[in-house]
Amino acid sequence: MTHKPIHLSGRVVVLPTTKGVFEDLGGVLMDAAQQAVRDRGVFHLALSGGTTPKPFYELLAQDQRYRDIPWHNTHLWIVDERHVPENDDRNNFKMIRSSLVEHTAIEPSNVHPIPTGEPDPAGAYEQTLRTVFSPVTGEVPCLDFVLLGMGDDAHTASLFPHSPALGEQDRLIADNDGPTVVPPARITMTYPFLNAARHVAVLVVGAKKAATLRRIEQVLANDGPQPQALPITGIRPTIGTLSWYLDAPAAAAG
Ligand code: 6PG
């Protein structure tokens, strides 16, 4: 494994082990949550699915170091979802519920799964967001902390290369489908909504993702962000911060 520093947009944290990355990120999330509750009385957290964050959610739920996360004052949102019922194993919320939600003191009414059983889940979720945040007209609601992952094709959330949802300018939540979208069809937070967040953390671990990260590094250095080809490069918070959390295998060169 070659240890060549990696340059991406925003802050890049590289730690030797996956466990170390999870522990560091857990501390950052807890600090952000406490700060949000001090400043505004509430913490709006949006979590991703995928395989990477499951052990991270278990750590947050079980390790005493994170017991001061103010779950009572937290609203939990889901970054993206597959068009499948809530009891389907591919459902992101099912994983987030069993690994985290069920073990915390979060108020059930503050947990907001994407309602895949409704005729228009994206529209319904957008409505719930607008009701809970009640933003002034034209304002994009501001999540406090968003946890994203990244696929080998550089997708993030359910924003896949060259897919329709990449172009969404007005909606907070969009449907997404098409040849590049890994089935089943998806429902996803959009760029305008994700980029309005106060903190965006991208968690990427494992050697399997190293080549994609180096490609992103190269494209950013030579051509700048290319959201159509590499959707993760469209994540550029307008007022908030972007941080990458990588383990050494993910950050390795060549
Ligand atoms: C999902 C995610 C998605 C994920 C990446 C990485 O619903 O699957 O929100 O964007 O973060 O596909 O997935 P892995 O962690 O499984 O590699």
What does this structure look like?
- The protein is α/β, with parallel strands linked by helices and 254 residues long.
- The protein contains seven helices and ten strands.
- It has helices at 18-40, 54-62, 92-99, 121-133, 191-194, 210-222, 248-251; strands at residues 11-15, 43-47, 74-78, 80-82, 111-112, 145-148, 173-176, 186-189, 199-204, 241-247.
- The strands form two sheets. It has a seven-stranded parallel sheet. Strands 4-8-7 form a three-stranded antiparallel sheet.
- α6 links the parallel β9 (199-204) and β10 (241-247).
- α1 (18-40) packs across α2 (54-62).
- The longest helix is centred in the first third of the chain and has 23 residues, at 18-40.
- The protein is globular and about 45 Å long.
- Residues 48-52, 79-80, 92, 149-151, 155-157 line the site of 6-phosphogluconic acid.
Q: What is this structure, in a nutshell?
A:
This protein is α/β, with parallel strands linked by helices and 254 residues long. It has helices at 18-40, 54-62, 92-99, 121-133, 191-194, 210-222, 248-251, and strands at 11-15, 43-47, 74-78, 80-82, 111-112, 145-148, 173-176, 186-189, 199-204, 241-247. Helices cover 29% and strands 18% of the residues.
Quickly list its features.
7 helices; 254 residues; three-stranded antiparallel β-sheet; seven-stranded parallel β-sheet; 10 strands; alpha/beta; binds 6-phosphogluconic acid
Fraction of residues in H or I helices: 25-40%
Number of strands: 10
Distance between the termini: 8 Å
Order of helices and strands: EHEHEEHEHEEEHEHEH
Number of helices: 7
Strand content: 15-25%
- Give the oligomeric state: single chain
Radius of gyration: 17 Å
What profile does the largest beta sheet have?
A: 7 strands, parallel
Main sheet: strand order = 1-10-9-6-2-3-5
Low-pLDDT regions: none
